[in-house]
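User: Could you go from structure to sequence for me? I need the amino acid at each position, not a summary. Structure tokens:
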């Protein structure tokens, strides 16, 4: 089985620890990318929360405006 001896790269389990420099570089990149993804997700959650708040404020503002216009119309009717 000489063909088995030449194929030693595929026989390593992840977590063996003896990585080549290229593998270490890749692992570092993956770690960095995962961190970037996590921070982007965080940004999105923050944005979502802000949007929800803004929506609530808008709803309240619109409701208040409706009440104001309604009372203004009522007052106009009362004036006539």
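Assistant: Here is the amino acid at each position, in order:
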């Amino acid at each position: 089985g000489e063909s088995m001896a030449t194929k030693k790269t595929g026989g390593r389990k992840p977590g063996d620890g003896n990585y080549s420099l290229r593998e270490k570089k890749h692992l570092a990149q993956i770690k960095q990318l995962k961190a970037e993804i996590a921070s982007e997700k965080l940004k999105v959650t923050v944005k979502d929360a802000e949007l929800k708040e803004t929506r609530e404020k808008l709803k309240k503002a619109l409701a208040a405006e409706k009440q104001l216009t309604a009372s203004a119309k009522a007052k106009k009717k009362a004036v006539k």
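One structural detail worth keeping in mind: The mean pLDDT is 85.
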